[in-house]
Amino acid sequence: MNKIKTAAALGLFDGVHLGHRAVLRLAVDSGLVPSVFTFEPETVCRAKGQSGFIYTAEEKESLLRQCGIREIYPVSFGEVCGLSGIDFVKNILVDRMNAGFICCGGSFRFGKGASCGAEELKDFGRKYGIPVEIAGDVVRNGETVSSTAIRKALQAGDIPAAEELLGQHYAIEKEVCRGAHVGRTIGFPTINQVYAEGQLVPKFGVYASQVSLDGESFPAVTNVGMKPTVNYSGAPLAETHIIGFRGDIYGKTVKIELLGFIRAEMKFSALGDLKAQISRDIESARHIFHKIS
Prior knowledge:
Layout: E1 6-10, H1 18-28, E2 33-39, H2 41-48, H3 57-66, E3 71-75, H4 77-80, H5 85-96, E4 99-105, H6 118-128, E5 132-135, E6 139-140, E7 143-144, H7 147-155, H8 159-166, E8 171-175, H9 182-185, E9 191-194, E10 205-213, E11 216-225, E12 237-242, E13 253-264, H10 271-292
Parallel strand pairs: 1-2, 1-4, 2-3, 4-5
Antiparallel strand pairs: 6-7, 8-13, 9-12, 10-11, 10-13, 11-12
Helix pairs in contact: 5-6, 7-8
């Protein structure tokens, strides 16, 4: 059993959006150790036959810690989906997390078959003498903030709408892997970051973006998709040219923030045509970057 008393925030927290942040603030402001119980996103998608989680477990952990969460208890969906509501509270929240305070959103469900919700959680909390607080919905532009709405915005390439709901830029924070170095041969070296299986990929196309490296923010241009000009056959990826940066960052985890959609992904008949288009994309990206910053 955990010896420290925790404030247990409960949820999938996919996207760590403004609604989630309202829950996390309750834990952070509780005076106890702010902690999160959450599911590993990949296991939820597999169990429910779905795809499209916004952030991987690693990306989500980074965002949760930025929100002030100190302890994270990630579990696979299969580990707890068979537990009754009371067993979930006893085994996970009481025994494993040593919760002295519990908080969640109004739509949080738990227990076998998602049989329990906020009211049952309050009842179980009273049984164990643990206060429970339910965060209210967060509304932006007349719409309740939700991961579903963010997925819809990203799939449409509507980066400002996704940012409004997330409360910050949509980010790609992954290890930089080696590619075919085609960008380097035409004068525009790029870094490649591969999306995880089952992860939501924004609308294929070219985006203005920004990258923070060594304390400096650089404008960048990012292509999200499948690199059709060079007959790429791997998983969807983000390929980013960092404007004005020259350095070796292979193998490092780099955070790319998308600022705005420039154009749809295209296949070019020749690399010279691709090079000319990238030059135009860079100018568009510079304009968006300086307008925002």
